[in-house]
Amino acid sequence: MPGVSTPRSGAGDANVGTGSSTASVVQVEQGAWEARAEAANWAAEELRECSRVVGQVLLTNYFGRGCAEGDSVFEALKAALNGTGGWKTDLALQIAAADTLAKASTGAAKALSESDSAASSSLERAGTIAT
Predict the structure, then answer these.
(1) 15 within domain boundaries
(2) What is the spatial distance between Cα 13 and Cα 6, in angstroms, rounded to a whole number?
(3) Beta carbons within 10 angstroms of residue 58's beta carbon
(4) Rounded to whole angstroms, what are the CA distances from 27 to 60, 83, 112?
(5) Whole-angstrom distance, CA of residue 24 vs CA of residue 112
(6) Do the domain assignments include residue 68?
(7) Of the candidates 12, 28, 31, 67, which lies 20 to 30 Å from 81 by C-alpha distance?
(8) 70 close to 61: Cβ distance less than 8 angstroms
(9) What whole-number distance in Å separates Cα of residue 28 and Cα of residue 7?
(10) Coil, helix or strand at residue 94
């Protein structure tokens, strides 16, 4: 997990403990999880916009109505984009995955922060670390 370390362990990101003056034995880089959530939300929104824009392309046959090749190319494009297992289906799955990642990252940030606070409080009450 990013940002998780114990004093003098050398583990984790940029928050390695330096000894008993460390405010918390278990340190969590909550910002890293929040950044993951933000990036996943951004990705989902970008993918939604991409889907919307491509949907506009399919409103009109730009290849030529009444033209055998134009009609067949347009139908093939619609099938590739909207058909079962098509591009928009894959895009919808990616959007759902990004939304799920955003929610999970937000939940992880909160859970790790709460766990960090609880562990620190418990250790402080036990006199294990200096306050």
Answers:
(1) no
(2) 11
(3) 14
(4) 56, 48, 9
(5) 13
(6) yes
(7) 67
(8) yes
(9) 12
(10) helix
CA angle, 59 as apex, 55 and 63 as ends, to 5°?
A: 110
Q: How many domains does the chain have?
A: 1
Residue type, 80: A
User: What tokens does 88 get?
Assistant: 């928009």
Sign of the torsion formed by the C-alpha atoms of 109, 111, 114 and 118:
negative
Number of C-beta neighbours around residue 86 at 10 A: 15
Q: Which domain holds residue 76?
A: 30-115
What letter represents residue 41's amino acid?
A: N
Q: Which residue has tokens 């034995």?
A: 25
Q: Residue 82 has what pLDDT?
A: 87
The answer to whether 2 touches 13, Cβ cutoff 8 Å, is yes
In a domain, 20, yes or no: no
pLDDT at 21: 44
Compute mean pLDDT per 10 residues along the chain, 131 residues long, and list them: 36 43 51 91 96 88 86 91 88 96 92 77 70 54
In a domain, 126, yes or no: no
- 130, burial (CB in 10 Å: exposed 0-12, middle 13-18, buried 19+): exposed
User: Quick check: 18 and 8 in contact, CB under 8 A?
Assistant: yes
